[in-house]
Amino acid sequence: MPRNEVLVLGGGFAGMAAAASLAIRGHQVQLIEQTGSLGGKAARLQRQGFHFDLGPSVVTLPDMLSAPFIAAGETPPRFVPVAHPTRYDFPDGRTLHIGTDPQAVAAQLSASEWTAYDALLGDARSLYEAAAPTFVHGPPPSLWDLTQYGMRHGLAAKPWLRLPGYLARRHPSSHVRDVFLRFATYFGANPFRAPAVLHNIAWVELGIGAVNPEGGVAGLVHAYERLLRKLGVQINLHTQVDRIAPDGTGIDVHVTQAGGASRRWRADGAVSALDAARTYRLLGRSHPSQRWTPSLSGFVLALAVKGVSPERMQHNLIMPARYEQEFEDLARGRHPRDPTLYVSISSKVEPAHAPAGWENWFVLVNAPPGVRTDKAAYARHLLGLLKARGWLEAGQATVLGAFDTDHLERFATHGAIYGRMANSLGATIRLGYDVKGLPTLKLAGGTVHPGGGVPLAVQSGVHSADALHQQL
Ligand SMILES: Cc1cc2nc3c(=O)[nH]c(=O)nc-3n(C[C@H](O)[C@H](O)[C@H](O)COP(=O)(O)OP(=O)(O)OC[C@H]3O[C@@H](n4cnc5c(N)ncnc54)[C@H](O)[C@@H]3O)c2cc1C
Q: For residue 18, how far is its CA from the centre of ligand 1 (angstroms)?
C-alpha cells in the first residue's frame, strides 16, 4: 500500500478520528494542533483537586465513538448508560426527572401531560429514524439523496412549522413543551425559530439514552490519544496553522511552532478539522460560511461546591422564568439576564473529579456568539441566580474558573459551538467535505456534515478521511 504523508489540521474529536482512520489506511499522519493538548472544545480544567470538563458533558451514540477503535482492531472505550435522569427545575417550583424510563416519566406527569409527552417522543423517534440514514450516518447526501428524503419523509417533518408550532400540535403543558424545546440548542439553534425537524434530536437523549465514558469526557480524549500514538500518528502540539495553499497535487501548510519558528509542510493531502469558516480564511478564500449567522456560544463557570447532595443529579437544568426571553436577549447580542442554567456534576459518577465532601459544578449558559461581557460581574450574577433558586447558599461555592465566548473563539469562529445557526430548513444542512478545486483537501468537524456534537464530529472525521483516501 502506498504510504502518503497526510496532514490532519486540528486535534478535536473530528481531527483525532480522521487521523486514526488515515493511519489505519496505511498513511503517514501528522496531526497539527495549536493548543497544548488534544480534545479541542472538550477542554479540561484541573484546579485545587477538582477536575472540570469544560466542553461536552452529555455523551450519546457510543457506537460512533467506538468505530475508530474497532476499525483499528483495538478495544473501544467503556461506556456505561447514564443511571439517573436529568433534573429539570421550573420557576414555579415544579421539579421533573426526565430520562429514558417511560414509566418513571409518566409517574410524574398528569394524564394529559403524559399523552402529549408520549406522542412527542414518538414524533421525535419517527423524525430521527427517517433522517438518520441521510443526515447522520454515511457521507454527505447528494442532491438525489436529499430529493429522496424530501419525497419520502419531507411532509412528516412539517417544513412549514417552527419547533414551537410543531410541539403545540400535541397540546403539551408549558413544562413538557420546554423540555422538548431545549434539544434544538444541541444544534446551536434558537428553539423558538428552529425548524420542526430539529425535534428529532430529542430522541437521541430521551429514547436511545446518554452514556458515561470511563473517566468522563477527559477519559474519552485520552483513549483517542492512546489510539493515535499506537497507530503511529505524529502529534504536533503548540503548532498553529497560519496558511493553507494548494501545491501541485498536494497541499502546503504554513505553521508557527512553539517558540515562534515558522515552518512549511508539504503533504500529499490533508483533512482540515478546523471550523469550516476558519479553513476558508486560511486558504485566503471567501466562502458563504464566513457570513452565515453563527450558532449559539456559551459562558461557563467552574464551581467548587461544598457538600454532596443526593437530590442533585449528574445533569440538571434550572429553567428560566420566560424561556423565550432568553433567546430574545441572545438574538440582540446580550448575555441573558435569566438564562437556563445547566449544571453538570461529573463527580456524581467520577468521584475523583472532586475532593471528598465536595462537588464539581460545570455551569453552562447560552451566550451570544462573538460578544463578550464583564466576566466577573456576569459570574456574580449567575451565582446570584443559583442562590435565588435555592441551589446554593451563601459561601457554599468558590469560582475556580469563568470562561466567556473568547475561550471558544480559540476553537471556532465567533465562539459559535455549532457553526451555522439553524433557524431555517436550509440552514440545518451542513457543508460537505469537498473544497472546490482542491481534491486532496477535505473538511471535517462539527461545522460540516453530519454536524456538531462529539459523535457526529467523530463521524465526520471518519468519512472525510475515507474521502481523502479515495483521492490519494
Ligand atoms: C460548552 C460546550 C458544551 C458542549 N456540550 C456538548 C455535549 O454535551 N455533547 C456533545 O456531544 N457535544 C457538546 N458540545 C459540542 C462538541 O464539543 C463539539 O461539537 C465537538 O467537540 C467538535 O469537535 P471538532 O473536532 O469538530 O472541533 P473542535 O473541538 O473545535 O476542534 C478543532 C481543533 O482545531 C484546533 N485549531 C483551531 N484553529 C487552529 C489553527 N489555526 N491551527 C491549529 N489548530 C487549530 C483547535 O484548537 C481545536 O483543537 C459542546 C461544546 C461546548 C463548547
A: 14
Dihedral (C-alpha) 217, 223, 225, 227: value to the nearest 10 degrees? -150
User: Ligand 1 centre and the CA of 16: distance in Å?
Assistant: 11
Handedness of CA 35, 41, 47, 50 (dihedral sign): negative
For the CA of 239, the nearest atom of ligand 1: 43
Whether a cis peptide bond, with omega within 30° of 0, leads into 450 is yes
**Centroid of ligand 1 to alpha carbon of 235 (angstroms):** 17
Residues flanking ligand 1, CB < 6 Å: 9-15, 32-35, 40-42, 55-58, 240-241, 273-274, 278, 298, 300, 364, 408, 410-412, 417, 445-446, 452-454, 457
Q: If we measure between CA atoms, which residue out of 142, 200, 24, 11 comes closest to residue 433?
A: 142
Work out the percent of the chain whose per-residue pLDDT is above 70: 100
241-297 residue pLDDT tens: 999 999 889 999 999 998 899 999 999 999 999 999 999 999 999 988 888 999 999
What span, in angstroms and rounded, lies between the C-alpha atoms of 61 and 185?
18
